[in-house]
Amino acid sequence: MSQKVNIPGIPSSAYVHIPFCRRRCFYCDFPIFVVGDRLRGETSGTISQYVEVLCQEIAMTAAGEPLKTIFFGGGTPSLLSIEQLQRVLATLEQHFGIAAGAEISMEVDPGTFDLAHISGYRSVGVNRVSLGVQAFQQELLQIAGRSHSVVDILTSVDLIHQVEIAEFSLDLISGLPHQSLEQWQDSLNQAVTVMPTHISIYDLTIEAGTAFGRYYKPGDQPLPTDETTVKMYETAQQVLTSAGYEHYEISNYARPGHQCQHNRVYWENRPYYAFGMGAASYIEGKRFTRPRKTQEYYQWVKAGGVIDCEVTPPKEVLLETLMLGLRLAEGVSLAMLAEKFGEEKLKEIHQCLQPYLDKSWVEVVGGRLRLSDPQGFLFSNVVLADLFEKLG
To answer: From the CB of residue 57, how many other CB atoms can be counted at a distance below 10 Å?
Structure first.
């Protein structure tokens, strides 16, 4: 039976990469540009030049329907001035349109904004912020190379609550060097106390080329043992669900009605625009990553921003759909898989997953294929690796 794969439609979401940081965190391998502790959008010609080129890229992109989600990631988007953020949003509005009630998210770091800045961001349209806390212990912040302090975290939380931004997300990292289970429990408890509507929990990954990649090897001390990181994951699930957060994605928890709509676009393998240095888009079945270095990105925009890549093959679309969709608590629809990839492929998927169905790591509930929580989520890499090997 031949596969039929629908090419995704016109995007209604956009990711905007702001690469500037005060310093590079020791675990970070993102495309960033370090500007030091004193510069921000108001005072940096480098940031101003980047915003100019970024708006050029947006303006030369084929326009589609109005945007329903916009996500400013980085880097540290809160190093932008209010005027620079407003200019980017105005360019998006003029070129695409921004739908009424659109989710407009912005990553912000503690210690990089004051009341005037966060109030200004809200006034130009930001209605969701993601605060990069990572840990509530000063010693762990220093170990991770973060530029903020615990005092900065608490001050920033207070500012966010003062301006009454509707959606407030908070990020934490587990598995940091020297991090104990007791410290992790304390961070979770403090996170709940400051009342975000959304919490993201990331397990540290040691990436080649980072400072941590030079200092540590996975599995070696002072990194927590595998048993400890598993316990950290289970503890997060217990603490946050007990506090009223829904575990709606492997790494994400939300109060009812407060899931991140932009990130759901990724997990549901829907199309999206992306703008800026190193940003990756998914349009008309094509995945494309922009140059990761500043001057190369500028030259690419100057040359017309040509996206020269092939449509993602059906086999890869299937694997991406499973890899992303199984991250969600509700998993993926069996009817959708059958319609998009064919009944024979659905039977093949079921055969591949039978050992994990037997272990209760994978479940079929209400016509959907999903990973169990927490065991299936904990062993998701094992399940997905097997799928990739057998279906790839």
So the answer is: 22
Claim to verify: residue 150 and residue 214 sit in the same structural domain: yes
Q: Identify the burial level of 319 via C-beta atoms within 10 angstroms of its C-beta, where 0-12 means exposed, 13-18 middle and 19 or more buried.
A: middle
> Which residue, 239, 267, 295, sits at the end of a domain?
267
CA angle 388, 384, 75 (to 5 degrees): 105
Residue 318 belongs to domain spanning = 313-392
**Predicted model pTM:** 0.95
Rounded Cα distance, 134 and 171, in Å: 6
Whichever domain contains 46, its CATH number is 3.20.20.70
CA distance 77 to 85: 9
Which two tokens mark 377?
A: 């989520």
**For residue 54, which of 370, 335, 305 has the smallest C-alpha distance?**
305
Give the residue from 269, 263, 281 showing the smallest Cα distance to 333.
Answer: 269
Tens-digit pLDDT profile for residues 267-325: 999 999 999 999 999 999 999 999 999 999 999 999 999 998 999 999 999 999 999 99
178: alpha, beta or left, given left = phi > 0 and alpha = psi -120 to 50? left
Q: Which residues contact 47 (CB under 8 A, 6 or more apart)?
A: 20, 35, 39, 40, 41, 79, 80, 84
Whether the CB-CB separation of 232 and 201 falls below 8 Å is answered with no
240/331 same-domain check? no
User: Are 366 and 257 in the same domain?
Assistant: no
Residue 211, both tokens:
């400072």
* 189 shares its domain with 253: yes
